[in-house]
Structure formats: structure tokens, C-alpha cells
Write a structure and sequence with these properties.
Layout (H helix, E strand, L loop, with lengths): L10 E4 L5 H4 E7 L5 E5 L21 E2 L13 H8 L3 E5 L4 E5 L13 H11 L1
Antiparallel strand pairs: 1-2, 2-3, 4-5, 5-6
This protein binds zinc ion (ZN) (2 copies).
One zinc ion (ZN) binds next to loops.
């Protein structure tokens, strides 16, 4: 169980409203200062303009040329949709998981074949 980020006190899980259930996996309240901490659902990582790890949400993912047979591939309906929508294969080295995402990297690593293409799309965003 995590502790309160404000006072370090113990957190207790509180009831979510109907709408909160769509957005949060869990909501906690501190027993001491009553500060609220929420855990957003992972599909929120599918929103936004850059590619993110579906598990930890980091933007620091790397592009894979082909599937790695050592690390597991993240599966599920959203990932199937990303793949069908023309998603590319990415890898999170923190979670050691592979996944498909149709968005580009937040900061493309230098010296890859696609640098030119990635830079162009990044410039368009700005
Ligand atoms: Zn607290
Ligand atoms: Zn990750």
C-alpha cells in the first residue's frame, strides 16, 4: 500500500462514483490529512499525441524494427486496434514489454533511418 504524498500517512481506498470508475482504477484518501490520490486507468495512456508505454506511461520508449521474441508483447483490444490502425512496434525498457502504437516518439533517437520522417512530423506538431 502506498503512503500519502503530502504527509506520508496511510491511504485507504474510497468508493468511486459511476463516472470515476471509467477514469480511475482506484481512488485513495489519506487517513490523516484526507488528501485524495487517484490511479488513472491505463487507457489514458492511449490519449495524447506521443507514443507512451501502456504499462508505466513513460515517453522514453524505443522503436523496434521487428518483434523481439524474448520480451512479451502487450496484448488486448486497444493494442489490436493500434496495430490495425497502422501502429508501429515499440519497446519499453523499463517494463520490458513490446506494444503497438500509431503515434510517433516524443523525442526521436538520432541515427535511425526514420529520423527525417520523425523530425518532420515533430515539427508539424510544434
Ligand atoms: Zn496525508
Ligand atoms: Zn513501461
Amino acid at each position: 500500500m502506498r503512503n500519502c504524498s503530502r504527509c506520508g500517512g496511510r491511504l485507504r481506498r474510497i468508493h468511486r462514483t459511476f463516472w470515476e470508475r471509467f477514469s480511475y482504477l482506484a481512488i485513495y484518501e489519506c487517513r490523516d490529512c484526507h488528501d485524495i490520490t487517484s490511479h488513472p486507468r491505463h487507457y489514458r495512456y492511449h490519449l495524447g499525441e506521443h507514443c507512451r508505454c501502456p504499462r508505466c506511461g513513460t515517453l522514453r520508449v524505443t522503436r523496434l524494427k521487428e518483434r523481439d521474441h524474448i520480451d512479451p508483447l502487450n496484448t488486448g483490444l486497444l493494442h489490436l486496434l493500434e496495430r490495425l490502425a497502422g501502429g508501429r512496434l515499440y519497446h519499453c525498457r523499463f517494463c520490458r514489454v513490446q506494444f503497438y502504437d500509431r503515434r510517433s516518439l516524443a523525442s526521436p533517437p538520432p541515427r535511425t533511418e526514420e529520423v527525417g520522417e520523425e523530425r518532420k512530423s515533430a515539427a508539424k506538431v510544434k
